[in-house]
Design goal:
heterotrimer; A mainly beta; B mainly beta; C alpha/beta; A: mainly beta; five-stranded antiparallel beta sheet; B: 1 helix
Chain lengths: 192, 158, 351
C-alpha cells in the first residue's frame, strides 16, 4: 500500500503501512456476526495498609478529630498526612489537630453524578481548608443551595452518628456553612 | 549501609483493609484477533502466514520480525504437540482449570509457532515435551481464547 | 556524548512485607540517604525520574504519592516509567545527554506484599490470547526453564548451583532478604514448586526500593572522588509472543551488550536473573570472560523488589566503583517476563 509523502502524519518515521489495518483474506466462513469486542474483566485483591501516618489520621477521624502532621522545615501542617512533607521531602513526626472549622478554597457544581455514594444532583463538591492546615480536604456541601456556595465561605463538618463512626473519611457526611464572615481570597493564596 | 527505615514504634496503630480493584475492560478485537476468536466460536483455529512463510498461531496483525502487515489467515489443526510445559499445582482464580494442571506451549498441526494454554493431566509425570494434545472445546463458546477449555492428552494420560 | 556518572546509591533493607509503611514512607529514607551522603539537596537535582507500577500495591498514582518524598514543590522537572528503575536511569541519562539537566535523581520501588504477585504479574501479558488464562509468573518462567532443560542448555544441578552461589554471596549484602543456602544436593532433594522449578529456583517476593544520583562531568567530580562513569548503556526487547520465540536464547541481551560496549575485562558483573535458569541466558548474551566476579550481592535471588531489582544491579556495581574496590563492571537489568526486555550498562572508575 502506498502513503502520500506529502500527507501530514503524526509520526513520520514509522514504517509504511503501520497505521493501516490489514483486511485478512479469510478462508473460512466467519458468518455475519464476527466478534468485534471482548469483555475481559480483571479483578485483583489486596490486603491494603495505608502506612503509619495515614492510619493515625483515620483513627483520629473515628474520634471526630482531623489530624495533620507538621513539616519540620516549613512548619506547615499537611492533611491527610502521608508521613512525609511534600514540600521538603522530610519525615513528619509531629501530629497536629486541625479544624474542624474550615474555609472553602474551591468548589464545583456537579450536575451529572456517578459512583455509588454520589448525592442527588445538582450538588457541590469542594475543597475545604481546615483551620491550621496548609492544604485542603475534598468533600461535598450540604444544607445550602448550590448557587449560594462561594470561595472563602466558612464551614464545619457534619459527622455521622457516633454509633456509625469508623476509621474512614465517610465519617464526614458533608460540610455545612457556619455563621462566620467569609475569608478574603487573598488570605487563601497558596492554599488553593 | 541500608537506609534507616522509619521506625514502626506505633505499628500497633496500623490499619489494614481488604481492597478489590476491578478493571471492567471492554476491548475491541480488530480484524485479526477478531477473526481468530470468531473462528474459535465456530470451533476452528486460525493462524496467519508471516512474510517468511511461517504460520504464526495465535495470529498477529504484523510480522513479528519485519512489522509488515499480515493478511493470509490459514486454518490450523485442533491437535498438536507440547513444545514446553510447567506444572501448576496450586490453581489461582481465573485459570481455565480448577484442578492442578500443566501450563503449556502447544504447536498446533500446521502452525510454526506455539500457543499458550493449559493441559488437563493427572500429574506432572503424565506430561512431556513432544506429547500429542487435542483441544477440548468449551460447551458454550463466546468468542475468546477460553473457548478452548483446555487441551487433553491424545489417547488420555500416558 | 557527555560523561555521566553514578555518584550516589542507596537502597532499603529488602524484606517480604513492609506492612507498616506506605510506599512514600518506605522510599523516603532511601531517597534522603542518596542525597544526604553526597551533601546534596533536591535543589541540586536537575531532573527526577522514578520507576513503579500501581498494580503491585493496588495504589492508584503511586508515583505521584512518592514524589512527596522528593520534596517536589516548587514544581520540579520530573518523569516516570512503569518499568524497572534501570529504564528510569536510562531516561535520566538521555536527559543529561541532551543538556536539559546536569544532574538527576533516579529511584524505583515496589510494595508487592499486599497482593498475590504471581497473579498480578499476569496482567502485563497479551490481554487477548494470554491474559484471560491468568498464568502465574512462576509457571510462566517454568516454560523457559523447561525449554532450556529439554535443549540441554542447562541442568537442574546447574540451576541449584546458581541458587547456592547467589544466596551464599548474599551473606555479605546488608540489604539482602534471602541469605545463605543449603547445599546443592539438599536443594535438589527438595520437592518441585512448579515443575521444573523448585523453590530455590525462584526469587523471593520483596518490598523495597533503590535511589541513585547521576551527574555529568565536573559536577560528578565535585561530589565524589571516584565517580562510576557510564561508559555505555543500551536496551533491547524481544518479541512478546513467547510461543514465537526461541526460549533457549535471549538475543536482546547480546545486542544490548554489543551496543553498550561490553568487551574486554571486567572486575565485576551484576546480572538481573530472577529465576536461576535465566542467569545462564544472560551470561550467554553478555559473553563475559571467566574470572569476572559474578553477582557479589546475591542478585535478584537474594532480594527481588519489582521495579527496583534491575536498578539495584547498576547500583551494586557503582557502589563498588565508588568505594574503590573495583575498577570496571557491567550491570544488566531485565523487565517483563522471561527476560523479554534487557538493559546493559558498562560502568568504570577513573577520571
Amino acid at each position: 500500500m502506498s502513503i502520500d509523502p506529502s500527507e501530514d502524519r503524526s509520526v513520520s518515521t514509522l514504517p509504511e503501512g503501520l497505521w493501516t489495518q490489514p483486511v485478512p483474506s479469510v478462508p473460512v466462513d466467519l458468518g455475519d456476526d464476527p466478534v468485534q469486542r471482548q469483555v475481559v474483566p480483571a479483578s485483583m485483591r489486596y490486603d491494603y495498609s495505608p502506612g503509619l501516618a495515614t492510619s493515625r489520621f483515620l483513627r483520629g477521624l473515628a474520634e471526630k478529630r482531623i489530624l495533620g502532621e507538621r513539616c519540620p522545615e516549613t512548619g506547615e501542617v499537611y492533611v491527610p498526612p502521608r508521613g512525609v512533607s511534600p514540600v521538603s521531602g522530610l519525615r513528619t513526626t509531629e501530629q497536629v489537630e486541625v479544624g474542624p472549622k474550615a474555609t472553602i478554597t474551591s468548589f464545583c457544581v456537579v450536575h451529572i453524578g456517578f459512583g455509588v455514594n454520589a448525592p442527588p444532583t445538582p450538588f457541590v463538591s469542594a475543597l475545604f481548608l481546615p483551620d491550621g492546615a496548609a492544604v485542603s480536604l475534598y468533600g461535598t456541601m450540604g444544607e445550602i443551595a448550590h448557587d449560594e456556595v462561594r470561595i472563602g465561605m466558612r464551614v464545619e463538618p457534619v459527622w455521622v452518628d457516633d454509633a456509625d463512626l469508623t476509621t474512614s473519611m465517610e465519617n464526614i457526611r458533608y460540610w455545612r456553612p457556619i455563621d462566620e464572615p467569609d475569608v478574603p481570597a487573598e488570605q487563601l493564596k497558596g492554599h488553593m | 549501609m541500608a537506609a534507616d527505615e522509619m521506625d514502626g514504634a506505633d505499628s500497633s496503630e496500623l490499619l489494614r483493609a481488604p481492597l478489590v480493584i476491578e478493571y471492567p475492560f471492554n476491548r475491541t478485537t480488530g480484524p485479526v484477533v477478531g477473526a481468530f476468536v470468531t473462528a474459535l466460536r465456530n470451533r476452528t483455529v486460525l493462524g496467519i502466514r508471516d512474510t517468511s512463510g511461517r504460520v504464526v498461531c495465535p495470529p498477529v496483525e504484523y510480522d513479528p520480525r519485519t512489522g509488515a502487515p499480515l493478511e493470509e489467515l490459514v486454518e490450523v489443526g485442533d491437535a498438536g504437540e507440547i513444545t514446553s510445559w510447567s506444572w501448576v499445582p496450586e490453581v489461582r482464580e481465573g485459570q481455565p482449570l480448577q484442578t492442578p494442571h500443566a501450563l503449556a506451549l502447544i504447536r498446533l498441526d500446521g502452525a510454526d509457532t506455539s500457543l499458550l494454554h493449559v493441559v488437563d493431566a493427572p500429574g506432572p509425570d503424565s506430561v512431556a515435551t513432544g506429547a500429542r494434545v487435542r483441544i477440548r472445546w468449551a460447551d458454550e463458546p463466546t468468542g475468546a481464547i477460553t473457548d478452548i477449555e483446555c487441551f487433553e492428552l491424545d489417547g488420555g494420560a500416558s | 556524548m557527555r560523561d555521566v556518572a553514578i555518584v550516589s546509591v542507596a537502597q532499603s533493607r529488602h524484606r517480604r512485607a513492609a506492612t507498616e509503611l506506605n510506599e512514600v514512607e518506605m522510599i523516603q529514607p532511601v531517597i534522603r540517604q542518596a542525597l544526604d551522603q553526597i551533601g546534596a539537596s533536591i535543589a541540586d537535582i536537575g531532573f527526577t525520574c522514578s520507576g513503579s507500577s500501581d498494580y503491585l500495591a493496588g495504589q492508584a498514582f503511586s508515583f505521584v504519592m512518592t514524589l512527596d518524598a522528593v520534596g517536589a514543590w516548587p514544581p520540579i522537572m520530573e518523569s516516570h516509567v512503569e518499568m524497572d528503575g534501570a529504564w528510569a536511569l536510562y531516561e535520566a541519562w538521555l536527559k543529561i545527554q541532551t543538556g536539559a539537566a546536569d544532574t538527576a535523581l533516579v529511584y524505583s520501588y515496589s510494595k508487592a506484599s499486599p497482593g498475590d504477585l504471581p497473579r498480578v504479574m499476569s496482567r502485563m501479558l497479551d490481554p487477548y490470547y494470554v491474559g484471560p488464562l491468568w498464568p502465574d509468573s512462576v509457571a510462566y518462567a517454568g516454560l523457559q526453564a523447561r525449554a532450556m532443560l529439554d535443549a540441554g542448555a542447562i541442568t537442574e544441578r546447574q540451576m541449584a548451583e546458581v541458587a547456592h552461589r547467589n544466596r551464599e554471596a548474599a551473606r555479605s549484602n546488608p540489604h539482602a532478604q534471602v541469605v545463605g543456602s543449603a547445599s546443592v544436593d539438599e536443594l535438589l532433594a527438595a520437592p518441585m514448586l512448579s515443575d521444573p522449578l523448585r523453590v530455590h529456583d525462584c526469587p523471593p517476593i520483596s518490598d523495597g526500593g533503590v535511589a541513585v544520583v547521576l551527574a555529568a562531568g565536573d559536577r560528578a567530580r565535585a561530589w565524589v572522588d571516584r565517580p562510576a562513569w557510564i561508559r555505555g548503556i543500551d536496551h533491547r526487547i524481544d518479541g512478546h509472543q513467547i510461543g514465537a520465540r526461541d526460549l533457549t536464547t535471549a538475543p536482546s541481551v547480546a545486542i544490548a551488550a554489543q551496543h553498550a560496549g561490553v568487551e574486554g575485562t571486567f572486575d565485576v558483573a551484576e546480572v538481573h536473573a530472577p529465576f536461576t535458569h535465566q542467569e545462564q541466558l544472560v551470561l550467554d548474551g553478555l559473553g563475559l570472560d571467566d574470572g569476572v566476579q559474578l553477582n557479589p550481592s546475591g542478585g535478584a535471588l537474594a532480594a527481588n523488589p519489582m521495579m527496583a531489582a534491575g536498578l539495584i544491579r547498576l547500583g551494586e556495581v557503582a557502589t563498588r566503583i565508588l568505594d574503590g574496590s573495583v575498577g570496571r563492571g557491567v550491570a544488566h537489568a531485565t523487565a517483563g517476563h522471561l527476560l523479554q526486555q534487557n538493559l546493559v550498562c558498562v560502568l568504570e572508575g577513573g577520571d
